[in-house]
Amino acid sequence: MPNDEKGSFSADIPEAAIADALAAVEKPAAEAPPPAEVPVEVEAAAAAPEASELELLRRELEMSQAHARKVFEQLREEHDKLLRVAADHENYKKRAAREREEVQRYGHERLVKEILPAMDALDRALSAASKDDPLASGVEMTRRLLEEALSHFGVQGFSALGQAFDPRLHEALMTLATSEVKPGMVVQEQSRGFFIHDRLIRPAAVVVSASPPVKASVPSEEAAEPSPEDAGRDKVAGEPS
């Protein structure tokens, strides 16, 4: 209701509204909602972010180092395998080269051995023929041509007659007792020896000298039977004085 006095104002407010306003102001602060709780792990992570990052980097470094060691071991094994393969290949090349050279030098050895008896027959024919035999010159020429053909393949013959017996080059067929030469000398040769390059393919078949047997001395009858004078002296020496 308006007041007649100038500058004054009044209003009618219900008492119930005033009581509700006072109750709302005087409400205890305990009734307010509690603050939300923060987990301990989140607080630790928030408190030390650098420590977790370092641990993660350390684990990644260890894994990288382990992987690098594994790869290094594999590479080393593969390297060793390649080295062994290269060494085996090099040895194979050298062995193949040696075998090829040996085939080139000695591959016809079997054929040469089949031809040598023909050479022996020509040698025996020349040794048995007389000097004025007209066929001897033809045999000599044939022998020389055959020997020259064999020399193109590295085949060379040698004679052991008059030399000291060498078991590495000579094959002794028999011994011959003689006083004309010293023992152990080649006095006869049945067949010559042959080389193919530096390899002996057939030794020389020879007869070797030996010392003649010593004759046993036979005592004479005079030395076996004592003379009468010696018997008398023995008898006197045996009598008592």
Describe the structure in brief.
The protein has 241 residues and is an alpha+beta fold. Helix content is 54%, strand content 14%.
List keywords for this structure.
Nucleotide Exchange Factor Grpe, Chain A, domain 2, three-stranded mixed sheet, three-stranded antiparallel sheet, disordered N terminus, 7 helices, 54% helix
What does this protein structure show overall?
The protein starts with 14 loop residues before the first helix and ends with a helix. The strands form 2 sheets. It has a 3-stranded antiparallel β-sheet. Helices cover 54% and strands 14% of the residues. It contains 7 helices and 6 strands. With 241 residues, it is an alpha+beta fold. It is rod-shaped and about 180 Å long. Helix 4 (109-128) packs antiparallel against helix 5 (134-151). Strand 4 and strand 5 (199-202) form a beta hairpin. Among the domains are: 49-106; 109-210, Nucleotide Exchange Factor Grpe, Chain A, domain 2 (Roll). Residues 1-9 and 235-241 have low confidence and may be disordered. The chain has helices spanning 15-25, 40-47, 49-106, 109-128, 134-151, 221-224, 228-238; strands at 155-158, 170-177, 186-191, 193-196, 199-202, 204-210.
